[in-house]
Amino acid sequence: MSDSPFLVRKVAVLGAGVMGAQIAAHLANAGVPVVLFDLAARTWSGEVVAALGIDPTWLPATFEGPAVTGLLSAEAAAATGLRPGTPVVAGGRGPVARCLPRP
Q: Are 41 and 64 in contact (CB under 8 A)?
């Protein structure tokens, strides 16, 4: 491996959870196109998915922030004090989420 710097022109971040999301966010904030997700189409890039040989069924469903993605289970309701069946939404980015009232 070389210690020489190199120019990153675009990337596809393959990772789930916080680590993958943080890597993608940092690269995007630095102006590097993150191409696995097609922002214009609001879904995974079929071209990049095919080029990487990824089975599209391995990728999670994508949702817009206000989309209801499920309902709160009885177990989660008991743990949180919320009502069972409370709608669960996809959510938003940090700045948006910080505007929500906290209990």
A: no
